[in-house]
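Bug #2210: token dump truncated for Heme-degrading monooxygenase HmoA?
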Amino acid sequence: MKAYMTNGTIEFLLKLRKKNPEIDLHLMHSSEGGIAYYENHEKKLFQSGREYEVLMQTGEILEEGFVVMNNIPVSDESKPGFEYRFKHRTNSVEGMPGFQAFRLLKPLKNNTYVVFTQWKSAEDFENWKESEQFKEAHKNQAAKKPANILEQAFLTVCNMYTEEEQ
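Reproduced locally. Full output below:
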């Protein structure tokens, strides 16, 4: 399955959604602007968007919630090991209160993977970060940048855009 994502103003992304009602276009917003995301559809809406292969998925992306995307640049030679570790991890996040959806997105044109999680609220995400399950899931991460990581990973944090916000 493929996933597609782009950035833009909410106004532009709303027009795009209106022109393409057959696509379940999820809109998000942050202090940096809007993000549109959709998956499992052959039509490409975005001229300068990003395209991914969905390697793993759990849950359904809902129209309301809090989204955290961990953007992780991985070198070409390290991609198989990175994917292997994810596929063989314990799925403790799925049982956390407020968890809604998870996607591991493999980039088709660059080296930045996206670990997409959706939560009912920012508080639920913070509770996950403070949990023993989080500590267990991240215990083998080195304090310094691993050799397979090209650049520093970064978070994109946003809320789902709802029509009431217009």
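Output looks complete on our side. The CA atoms of residues 79 and 148 lie 8 Å apart. Marking as cannot-reproduce; reopen if the truncation happens again.
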